[in-house]
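2024-03-11 09:14:02 DEBUG pipeline.ingest accepted 1 chain
2024-03-11 09:14:02 DEBUG pipeline.ingest length=150
2024-03-11 09:14:03 DEBUG pipeline.predict start
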Amino acid sequence: MRLAREGRALVGGICFERYPRSGCGLVTYMVVAPSHRRQGLGFRLQHEAVQTLGGTVFGEVARALIHRNLRWGARIVDVPYVQPALGPGLERDRGLTLIALEPTTETLPGDVVRAFVEELYAATEGGSPDPAIRIGATVALILAQPPDAG
């Protein structure tokens, strides 16, 4: 977790984690105070998280926030995505899109994406990924509307 301060005031923060088996990172949460939005703080926090994590870094975003992330260099991971339940009794979220943050290629090996999703589900739910998530041998990173989770 990283926090951004202006003097003693907290003006933003980001949470991120590394998944050791897959070698991938995930930005899990970011917030910027309304008074500091549209000044580059969110981009800077996200960029620094990607640099800290290294390798392939993913994010899960609501469709309403995709365009901001695309402007920042993210690409939509072209697979149907379902976020695992984040706690006992909670539902899986079918309204999020998986994105790759600052990718250096136009595709990812399916094995990399699959390993990350499997590790994420094992860590959060202790089981297998949602069957709606189908990952081929190669996964395109795109700038278009995300696929439906189905």
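2024-03-11 09:14:41 DEBUG pipeline.report Residues 19-29+57-142 form one domain.
2024-03-11 09:14:41 DEBUG pipeline.predict end
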